[in-house]
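Work package 3, deliverable 3.1, input record:
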Amino acid sequence: MPTHFGEHPLPRAFYERASAAVARALLGQRLVRVLNGRRLSGLICETEAYGGATDQASHAYRRTPRSAIMFGPPGIAYVYFIYGMHHCLNVVTECDGYPGAVLIRSITPAEGIECLRENRPGVADRYLADGPGKLCQALAVTAPLNGIDLTRNSELFITAGAQVDVQELVVTPRIGVRGDEETRTRPWRFVWQPTSHPVRPDPRGETSSNALV
DNA sequence: TATACGATCACCT
DNA sequence: GGTGATCGTATAC
């Protein structure tokens, strides 16, 4: 795949679909961050889909100034601050006017590992970007990147990465969400677990299934 | 204006 | 497996 000048970010049409479809399709794609002239990247290996008024776990369950971005055009980054110290990176999905987003929960470092190490001092390579807050720290994704267009070749974008085989796909309920039974059990977390190299086990032990594949 | 808490992480036992 | 850190945001008053 192209890793040089002129590579094409995934087009807006990629994101203009149902959140769960985008969450599934993002597995294996390459998240690229250009920081101080250095290029960092990783392959997306864990995502979660979030919806609108019928998804009690979503920020867009109610429209507020913060969640308004989820109602806008797809392909835009939604970065928010949580627990007083972490950032989370999302991609807006669905048509303009209809809310949706995908939370990127973890990546496998691919380029610029030295820089990721600098951003996460004292952390073993295996844990550099294996969580939503961790990957934001590793890639220096913070509030100023909120609203950036991921379909443009700039500081943050996503390009085509690896093919993810169905055999390597795990689908589970989302982590740490509240709400009614339907919201809590909705199978909207997608994990890429290449059989060749083990990925971390399910962090909270919820049952997994390939039912949605 | 005030208050409670979260789409988390790291460090403790 | 338990919990403190730490603050923007939403919501209640």
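Confidence is low (pLDDT under 50) at residues 200-213 of chain A.
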